[in-house]
Amino acid sequence: MMKKGIKKSILTSCLLMSVVSTHTWASESLVEMTDTELSAIQGQALLSLGFTAPNTANPLQNYGYYKLGLEAKMELNANIRALQLGCGGRNGPDGCDIDMENVSLSGPPDGKLADGTPTWSKGRANTSAVLTNPFVEFAIKNPNSASTREIAGFRLSAEEILGYLTAGTRNDIDGNGLSTGGGINTFSGFIKVGETPVNAFTQDAMFGTTPEDIIYAKIRALGLDRVAFTNSNKMTSGSGSYENPAGANGSENLYHYNGNPIWGINVPRQEVQFNFPETIVTGSRMKQLNLVVKDVPIPTIAIGADNGGIAMTLDQSILGLVDEATFFMGAKGTTGAGCAAVINKTNCSYITNLKANVQVKQNFNLIHNLPISSGGYLALQNTALQWPGVDAADIAQPGWWLSFKDPLDFGALNPTTGIPMQDVLPQIATFITDYLSNNRIDLSLGEAFGALFGTPIYKGIGDVRLADDARAVMVLENLLLDGHQKPVANCFGGLKFC
Can you tell me the distance from the alpha carbon of 339 to that of 189, in angstroms, rounded to the nearest whole number? Predict the structure, then answer.
């Protein structure tokens, strides 16, 4: 007990001596300055205060903005298991304004793998986001009236932010179009997506077998004009007039799937490459990214005899002998690959000048990586307003609001699964019918007589050039993206999240 008392006495004495010596040094070293002398001194304060007067001409900016800033650089590395803001409340009882799982903030990557996965040479957990001059700002309604002034909102921000924000732990997709590793469930705010290359591809599809794919064509055989159309009933299993393709004339040349002949013309996989223009995405409690890109060119679709055949029926028989035939859109022996490699408009068929308006419907939950290279803010307001210095289209809505100042660079959007073509094929059928209504198919004497005896018709129809204003609608919905959107753990060791 005595030793403890002695230690306390010594400590107290040291503290008193320190205070006395500091006071003595301050008294001897500090010099009082006048206001004039102080005004001539230049320096930088740790804290700064600012005020932006109301813009009475714009009701969204008719507030006094009071800003308290820290003149410094702040480094931050953080993981948040669940970030949920504005749940319930004025925006409705169901859901949150911002709902993000497994959120990580770090410094930006300094490399990437061949598939686009970001890399950090020192490890992500050893890096930090840099916030230059962070500040808090209040929006005050009626700032000049002591009796009616009120706080309309506040925001947390910085003059510049350099970092890497991710949400989720896995780049995958389940049967509901969601990632099993979490991510952005709902988002309220403003994002400007920078111009982004998209490298997608379509799925193989069978064409011409359904009522939606029906094609009408004018033909002339033996001097007789007829109209031929696809007979979907003959090609649909279960219908009364279905014909098994294995027993059809020319079945050996029909397209084969798993070794068996099937009806239809195979439209092979097509590479679809385009750039998303810079696009603004803004709204409250958004769950899906909805974008439209117009006039996306689709590569020429080359068709040979090996792409398969379709059953056609004539509106009137030829010489009372035949009113149907199996039709191949290529001369016998031609292949789709060969027609694509060497243009042959005499013996092959080409669907050209096809353009699509591409609709992108991607759950936010499948977008994991948000690189940040400029300012941004997180705000809460009770009314729609516009904070100073933001984009003209960035109007913060009531509730919590997360905004990014400059365009975000997603790197690339490369779906790993093909785009379904089922919705596009009926539109192509309509375009082909429009073309063939003005461009008759003439059968040679040999082709016409062959058809009389049940021989399939092998006929390339050349360049089926679609009208310049013809647009198919193609939908990219909840497609798994490549490594550019693969989240990397912000942890030491092998932990997915910490």
Answer: 50
